[in-house]
Amino acid sequence: MKRISMKKLVDFGVSFMTRRGVPTAKARHIAKVAVDAEAFRLSTHGIVQYSVIHENLGKSISPKKETRTLRDYGAVAVLDAEGCFPVLAMKKAADMAVRKASKYGIGMITVRNSGWIAALSTHILPLAQRGFAVTAWAQSSRCRDCAPYGGIDACFSTNPIAVAFPTAGDPVVADFSTATMSMGSAHEMIGRRERGRVPRFLDRRGRPTTDPSVIDRGGSLMFMGCEADGHKGYALSLFNEALTVMAGGSANHPGRPGRQTFGLTVIDPRRFGGKAYYVREMKRFLARVKAIRPRLGMGRVRLPGERGQATLKGCQTRGVPLTDEKVGMLASIARANRIAEPW
């Protein structure tokens, strides 16, 4: 395990992307999102973005192509990100949603024909820090990760959802798959030869199991809620598919080119009950939540995103811990682009 400063990791990303034709300001934003995600403990969606960019830049991703606005009506808009950096498409969507929320109280933007957007929470946390409440979602059109509740054959991606909202202190932020976990997390378990504590996977015959390796042998992830309450994750995943179609994207369809559709809704509390009331009442309520007696072995009651934000702040002073595999990945990117390694 090697610790590398966040600044060096961001500068490294800027170096290899600008060398491949990406404008400096855009490269810096993309790099910061990737590094922040890694520092936030989202290891399956963090610095691995550099590898995805390195492999696809100049192919499915154009270094300078801009996201197009297809429709723009009042509080809503639809964007097309074909050939663009997904992270930059999300930035444009977020900027538009904030402007609309500031004017109308709410702004909803959908983006179609994008690539992998990585961790949703990294994109929406800065908006909550600015005082907005945010929901975000994403869908991938070709993934076969989850079977419908009660079924065997996978026909959904993990269809993640994220929420964030401001408080008197750090925002609350939560980012989760409608499946029991992300596919990246499942493959990490396979690499470590771990098993789940409870059955979270289905084998190719539809039998629940604790063994994640079944997903590489015709099996799948179960939906959030697993065997007892998986219908809840299933319903949320179906909603992501409906939102995708609403945006003009393709619902899960392995026969078509792989695309990711995503969207976010930004809400301005000032336009509803008022900012002062919102801050005061949430402060009171969250203090009550955190004062609740903890269960044995839990230490204390935490809020969603509390630990990740604390880790992010720690990494800002101590650097980001990277596995030997990720260090090797960065070294390979450095060699391929003839730039210095970030250490």
What this model shows, in words?
- This protein is of the alpha+beta class and 343 residues long.
- 41% of the residues lie in helices and 17% in strands.
- It has helices spanning 6-19, 24-39, 48-56, 86-104, 120-129, 183-191, 226-246, 275-290, 306-318, 324-337, and strands at 2-4, 68-73, 76-80, 106-114, 133-140, 161-165, 172-176, 201-202, 208-209, 220-221, 260-267, 320-322.
- Strands 2-3-4-11-5-6-7 form a 7-stranded mixed sheet, sandwiched between helices. Strands 9-8-10 form a 3-stranded antiparallel sheet, with no helix packed on it.
- A hairpin with a 6-residue loop joins strand 6 (161-165) and strand 7 (172-176).
- It starts with a strand and ends in a 6-residue tail after the last helix.
Q: Which key terms come to mind for this protein?
A:
globular; alpha+beta; single chain; 41% helix; 343 residues; 10 helices; 7-stranded mixed sheet; 3-stranded antiparallel sheet
Low-pLDDT residue spans: none
Distance between the termini: 13 Å
Order of helices and strands: EHHHEEHEHEEEHEEEHEHHEH
Shape: globular
DSSP summary, beta strand count: 12
Number of helices: 10
Structural class, from helix and strand content? alpha+beta
Compact summary:
With 343 residues, the chain is of the alpha+beta class. It has helices at 6-19, 24-39, 48-56, 86-104, 120-129, 183-191, 226-246, 275-290, 306-318, 324-337, and strands at 2-4, 68-73, 76-80, 106-114, 133-140, 161-165, 172-176, 201-202, 208-209, 220-221, 260-267, 320-322.
Secondary structure elements and pairings:
Elements: E1 2-4, H1 6-19, H2 24-39, H3 48-56, E2 68-73, E3 76-80, H4 86-104, E4 106-114, H5 120-129, E5 133-140, E6 161-165, E7 172-176, H6 183-191, E8 201-202, E9 208-209, E10 220-221, H7 226-246, E11 260-267, H8 275-290, H9 306-318, E12 320-322, H10 324-337
Parallel strand pairs: 3-4
Antiparallel strand pairs: 1-12, 2-3, 4-11, 5-6, 5-11, 6-7, 8-9, 8-10
Helix pairs in contact: 1-2, 2-9, 3-10
